[in-house]
Specification:
Length: about 90
């Protein structure tokens, strides 16, 4: 999946027996829901453990998405710099 597809909220294809990976936006929204539920103090111990586990996975997914976008931006900036240097060298 390209950085453009990730930024547009596209979901990764599902593996066999696996749910599709949520988009960054969906994962971020779910983390906010989890935080609200945990802050409410109404979750049981089992639910709290499940929510913390789910939240951790979603935060890791969000971090990976942000890292991929950051890497793509760095690559784009390097490509622009190379192009500029090549144009200046051709003068």
């Amino acid at each position: 999946m390209s950085a453009d597809e990730r930024a547009a909220g596209a979901e990764a294809p599902a593996g066999e027996g696996r749910e599709p990976r949520p988009s960054y936006e969906a994962a971020s929204a779910r983390v906010e829901e989890i935080i609200r539920r945990l802050d409410s103090g109404e979750a049981s111990l089992d639910e709290t453990l499940a929510l913390v586990s789910e939240g951790k996975e979603l935060i890791e997914l969000c971090a990976a998405e942000l890292n991929a976008v950051g890497n793509a931006l760095e690559e784009l900036q390097l490509d622009e710099l190379v192009g500029r240097l090549e144009r200046e060298a051709d003068r």
